[in-house]
Amino acid sequence: GAVVSQHPSWVICKSGTSVKIECRSLDFQATTMFWYRQFPKQSLMLMATSNEGSKATYEQGVEKDKFLINHASLTLSTLTVTSAHPEDSSFYICSARASGSYEQYFGPGTRLTVT
Amino acid sequence: RKEVEQDPGPFNVPEGATVAFNCTYSNSASQSFFWYRQDCRKEPKLLMSVYSSGNEDGRFTAQLNRASQYISLLIRDSKLSDSATYLCAVTRGDSNYQLIWGAGTKLIIKP
Description:
The complex is a heterodimer of chains A (115) and B (111). By secondary structure, chain A is mainly beta.
C-alpha cells in the first residue's frame, strides 16, 4: 500500500516554457500533499504544502506565482513551473499523507532540465 | 543551529558490521519521528517510524531519546544493499503535518 506516482519522471524544456508535474496517490486518499525540490547532494527542501480543496501554503522564498499548485482531489495534486529558467532545473518530488498519519510517502520524482 | 542535524558522513563500514547514527532535533514540541532511506537519484522511502518505546524491524532498530532530543538508527549485520543516504525527519510541531528533514547521513557498505 501507500503508493504514490509522479509524472513525468523527467522532462527537458526550453527557457520560458511551463511544465506541469502530476502527483497521484494510487491506493489511498491523500489529505495533504507536499512538494519538494532537491539539488544534487543536498537535502529535501519543502516548497509547499497543499490540502485538498484549499490553497497551497508556500514556504518562505518560494514564489507562488511561479510554482502553481493545484490539489483538486484527494488523489491528485499538480505543480506547474511557469516560465521556467535554467536555475529551476532540479529534482522535484511530491509526497502524500493519509488522514490521521504523519508518515509521508513519496512519488518517484521528476527531473526537470531547463535549457 | 539547524532544526534537525545529522552527521553527513560518509560512514564507510565493512559488510556484516553494525553501524549506528544519530539525528538531533531542536524543537521539543516535535511528536513524531521517522527514518527514511534515499538511494542516489531516487525518492526517499520510509524505513521506519520511531516510537517512544523504540522499535525494531529485522536488522534495523530505531530509538528515541526525548530528554536529549535525538533519534538513532542501528543497522546490524549490514549488507551491501544498505548503502544509501539515511534521512531523519521530525514533525514541525504545528499544523499541516509538515516534516523537518535532516540533510542525511551517507552510508557505504564495503565488501
